[in-house]
Amino acid sequence: MTESKQSNFLVRLWRGFWGGVTTLRMFVFNILFLLVLAFLIRGMLSGDRITVEDDTTLVIAPVGLIVEEYTGAPAERAINEALGQQLPETRLRDLLRTLELAADDDRIVQVLLRTDRLLGLSAGTMTELDAAVKRFRESGKPIVAFGSSMTQAQFGLASMADEIWLDPDGLLLIEGISRFRNYYADALELLRVDVNLFRVGEFKSAAEPYIRNDMSEADQEAAEFWIGGLWQQYLELIAANRGLPIERLIEQTQNPVEMVVSANGDPAAAALDAGWVDRLITRPEARIELADRGAPDDDKGFRQIGMDDYLAVPRTPKVPRDRVGIVVASGSIVEGSQSPGMIGGDSTARLLRKAADDDSIKAVVFRIDSGGGSAFASEIIRQEMMALRETGKPVIVSMGDVAASGGYWIAMGADEVWAYPNTITGSIGIFGMFPTFQRTLETVGINTDGFGTTPLAGALRPDLAMSDTVGELFQSVIEHGYREFIGLVGEHRDMTTAEVDEVAQGRVWTGAQARDRGLIDQLGTLDEAIDAAARMAGLSDDYGTLYVEPKMSPFEEFLAQMGAEAMVRAGLDLPTHPIRALFGNALYDQVTGDLTVIAGTRSSRPGMPEVVAHCLCESPL
Question: Which residues are designated catalytic?
């Protein structure tokens, strides 16, 4: 290469490098600019001080999914939301707090529940909100629910109101509960991937999609039982809230075509005839009606305040001497430190230690919403909870929508375990999986050969077939882990190993079914679990509560206060990933999540099969 050509090559290389750096720099600055701009616009829209006038309607309009805690650190969440890579979320605790405050606020005369922007409401969360709304209704203030159309989950929330209004052109169909999964055995065979699966438990079906093309008989038997339980509880909630005979509601849901056809194909009229809604009303008509019941407003039609602004209204805080601490464990369980929305063995253990060291906290409620994950991380958390109990502070577990497999593991050892009747729990079992890709590589002409000094030397390479010796070793490890799991359950639940094994085997139960089998102590809401913890600690009625969370930096607080809602208010269009747009968020997340498991990127020890206590299940509403 001549000196001139070499010089030109280096110049082009430098220009390419610098161009990439410039593009990255502009991308980062643009994101920060949008975040700051949205925050400023939100500030201008909200004003310096939020006040509540008399005869105000409180508007509660949950956005996205209702969650125990926001997913991700504030900075990560704000950027992901700006890029359209994260679904919006509404915290359950904010909804509960809003209803609690509004019940005693004479300036609030009624509540409007808007359901249109709610994307998901799990079965356990529905139970918690139903109890909170019933407490609010004791104040005598009416609640009206309104939706353009309503999904099954949205209707579950709306059913808690005194009245349900539906747009005349709207749609309301109760579709039932199902559990469908993608199965990859044929696809993996086409890719020539060998899935080495090790498991214990007849019903431990979490990893079945990687070795089958359909649901096993055992999985179907178990699913029909617990999903049937969830469906019955949903119907009972709707029937009770709407004052409908449950037999009539069952008949309606089993004959949706007949119901709509009898209304001349008008689904909104069918919902009205069925007694599912009270009125068919347009948005302008709804604004006039709400103004008549509250107070008119020239700009908005009726005097109103949203949930976020209502929570931001300045109030004189009470500083109780004694408090019940609440530690949230939400998401999959993995080793190390994790951001909110994931349960880290180390980070969650730190929160439990923080609660133990806080002298103002006299009892702890460990709020769990998890289908499980790493068995090793689960045991770290369980041990830390036991250490917390040794300080003399009572510990009550409150199970959320899901507390199964590893989620059940970390619940063991509490003074009492509470769950909703429709919590998904149990799934006491473990598995391990290690895919190998030697046949995949062979198709493109790549072969692996060599030697090792022992049967284990090089045996865990993903480009080598797993030997029978290694397979036997790992199956033995998994069986040992299962014996440890059911042994701990027996120790904490005062059951024999045989008794535990009979209700374990990886089988999933609802909270009500689990209580009948001795796996939990009480059925009730988070609020009831908190009261139980306070009683156990001997606290007076004026105790307070405190969510035990990592301390945020000033910049993280700035981003947390801003949130995705500011983006919406600023009128910023959030882009959608094209594959998400094609298949929809649920299918996209399911398939990419399943393939991530196969790729092994979730393993905390790369190159090693991880012992997993996970049910890979969620509330299906």
Answer: 204, 405
